[in-house]
Amino acid sequence: MKSSITQGVRILATGSAVPDWCISNKILSDLIDTSDEWIFTRTGIKERRIALGDTSLIQMASLAAMQALRQASISPVEIDLIILATSSPNDLFGSASQLQAEIGANKAVAFDITAACSGFVIAIVTATQFIQNGSYRNVLVVGADVLSKWIDWSDRRTCVLFGDGAGAILLQACSSIQNNILGFQLDTNGEKFDHLNIHYNGNKDKADFLSAKSNGNYGYITMNGKEVYKFAVSKVPDSIMKCLASLNLSIEEVNWLLLHQANKRILHAVADRLNIPKYKLISNLAKYGNTSAASIPLALDEAINEGKIKQGDLFVVSGFGAGLTWGTVILKWIC
Ligand code: ACO
C-alpha cells in the first residue's frame, strides 16, 4: 500500500459472536489423555466455545455482522461488499452469499477468502483496495470459523487448541485525514503448506470413481506444531518490522499488538523479539482458544468494548497460519 493515501478507509464498528457451549480444559481432560496444566502452560488456553449442530457458521457470522451494523446505524442494504474470511464454509462453493441473504444485504457483492488464520488480515487488505480505488463505500468484513468440525477429537496434539467463533468489522470510505488503515505487508510460502492443513482425499483410481464409492472428502486438521511455532516467531516479527519501516514508524510508537490468537507462547515470543512490553499485547486466547479467521476481530471487538483503545492509538495487527501465509496491517484509531 502506498503511503500517499487520497481515499481513506475508516473503521465504523465491530461485532462478534461465539457459540454458547463452553468446553473447559477440565472437561477435555475427562475425555482424552490431557490435563489443564499441560494445555494452559503450553498454550495459554483455558476453555473454548464449540458450535453444536444448530449453531452454524452463518448464524455466528450474521450475529457479529448485525452487531456491527447496529452500532454504526447502517442498514444492511447500504453495504456494497461483503468479504467472509473462512476456511470452514457451509458450502465449498462459498458461504458469503448465504451471509448476504441472512442479513438482507441484497445490494452487496459477496465472496469468501480462504486463508486460514491469516484470512481476516488478507480480507481487510482486500476490502481496503476496493475502497481506496473508489469501487465501494461500505464494506463488511467477517472472519468466522468452525474448525471444531474438522478436528480429530481423539488427537490430543490438535484438539485442545481450537475453538469456534466469528468477528466482524465495518469499513467505510472517508477523507484521508480520518484514514484508519495505514499500511500492510503480506507473505506466503507454499513450499511449507504441509506443516498445517486439512488434506483433500480424492478418488484413488478409475474403478473407485466409476463405482461412485467416493465423492472425495477431507481429512482432519494435521499440524507440525514445532515447525508452525518456529515459522510464526520468526516471520511475524519480520513482517511487522517491514510494515512499520515502510510507514516510517518505530516500535516505540506502537500502542497495541494484536496477533492471531494461536498460542500464548507465540504471542509472548513475538512481543519479546520486537521489544514490545506484554501490557501492549491484546489477548483473549484463554477464553476462546484458536478461532482461526475469527480470532483477530473477536479480540478487537472485545478490546474496543472494554474501552482499552484510545483516540490516536497505533495498532499492529498480524495474522499467520496455514498456507503458510502471514501478514500485518497497521491501524491508527481515529473515531
Ligand atoms: N496433553 C498432554 N500431552 C500432550 C498433549 C496434550 N494435549 N499434546 C501433546 N502431548 C505430549 C506429546 O505426546 C509429547 O509426549 P512425549 O514426549 O511423551 O512424546 C509431549 O506432550 C510433547 O509434545 P510436542 O508435540 O513436542 O509438544 P510441544 O512442546 O511442541 O507443544 C504445541 C505442542 C503447544 C502445539 C506447540 O508445538 C506449539 O505451540 N506449536 C505452535 C502451533 C500452534 O499454536 N498452532 C495453532 C494452530 S496454527 C495457527 O493458528 C497458526
Automatic annotation (TrEMBL):
Q: Which residues are in the Beta-ketoacyl-[acyl-carrier-protein] synthase III N-terminal domain?
A: 111-190
Q: What class of enzyme is it?
A: transferase
Localization per record: Cytoplasm
Enzyme Commission (EC) number = 2.3.1.180
What region holds the Beta-ketoacyl-[acyl-carrier-protein] synthase III C-terminal domain?
244-333
Keyword terms of this UniProt record: Acyltransferase, Cytoplasm, Fatty acid biosynthesis, Fatty acid metabolism, Lipid biosynthesis, Lipid metabolism, Multifunctional enzyme, Plastid, Transferase
Q: May I have one GO cellular component term? A: cytoplasm
What's a BP term from Gene Ontology annotated to this protein?
fatty acid biosynthetic process
Its catalytic activity? malonyl-[ACP] + acetyl-CoA + H(+) = 3-oxobutanoyl-[ACP] + CO2 + CoA
Under the heading Pfam families, the entry gives: ACP_syn_III, ACP_syn_III_C
The molecular function terms in GO held by this entry are: 3-oxoacyl-[acyl-carrier-protein] synthase activity; beta-ketoacyl-acyl-carrier-protein synthase III activity
Question: So, what pathway does this thing act in?
Answer: Lipid metabolism; fatty acid biosynthesis
| Catalytic residues (UniProt) | 117, 260, 290
Q: Where is this region: ACP-binding?
A: 261-265
Q: What is known of its domains?
A: The last Arg residue of the ACP-binding site is essential for the weak association between ACP/AcpP and FabH.
PANTHER family given for it?
3-OXOACYL-[ACYL-CARRIER-PROTEIN] SYNTHASE (PTHR43091), BETA-KETOACYL-[ACYL-CARRIER-PROTEIN] SYNTHASE III, CHLOROPLASTIC (PTHR43091:SF1)
Q: Which NCBIfam families match?
A: fabH, PRK09352.1
As for what it does, the entry says:
Catalyzes the condensation reaction of fatty acid synthesis by the addition to an acyl acceptor of two carbons from malonyl-ACP. KAS III catalyzes the first condensation reaction which initiates fatty acid synthesis and may therefore play a role in governing the total rate of fatty acid production. Possesses both acetoacetyl-ACP synthase and acetyl transacylase activities. Catalyzes the condensation reaction of fatty acid synthesis by the addition to an acyl acceptor of two carbons from malonyl-ACP. Catalyzes the first condensation reaction which initiates fatty acid synthesis and may therefore play a role in governing the total rate of fatty acid production. Possesses both acetoacetyl-ACP synthase and acetyl transacylase activities. Its substrate specificity determines the biosynthesis of branched-chain and/or straight-chain of fatty acids.
Task: Describe the family membership recorded for this protein in Swiss-Prot or TrEMBL.
Answer: Belongs to the thiolase-like superfamily. FabH family.
How is the subunit organization of this protein annotated in UniProt?
Homodimer.
Designated name of the protein: Beta-ketoacyl-[acyl-carrier-protein] synthase III
Q: Which organism is it from?
A: Sporolithon durum
